[in-house]
Design a protein that fits this description.
The chain is mainly α. Helices cover 79% and strands 0% of the residues. The protein folds into 2 domains: 50 residues; 33 residues, no CATH class.
Amino acid sequence: MVSGFSDTDPEAERVQLALLRRASPAQRIELALSLSESAIRLARDGIARRHPDASPEERGLRFVALHYGSDLAEEVRAYLAGRR
């Protein structure tokens, strides 16, 4: 099931799919979690590069706004302010 929408060589994609199909459910979950962690880390690193002077809290709020919406980010901001 080669998609044709990838920049991956078709033969390499075929091998990747075969390996994925042979993987156990635990291995598939581990791969999915690893990919998710990588995507989150890359997003956070990008925010840090674009806003080097922002505090860790502000960077976190920017992450929330970007991925979950500004309304939630503002609710988190208010919650954090109320805890101080």
